[in-house]
Amino acid sequence: MKNLAFYAVVVLGYIAYGAVTEADRDASGTIVSEGSIDAFNMRVGDCFDSANSSNDEVSDLPGVPCSEPHDFETYAVFDVTLDSYPTEEAMGELAYDSCLQRFDDFVGLEYESSVLEIITMYPTTESWKQDDREVVCALYDMNEEKLVGSTRGRAI
Question: Residue 22: CA atoms inside 13 Å, Cβ hemisphere, count?
Answer without folding.
Answer: 14
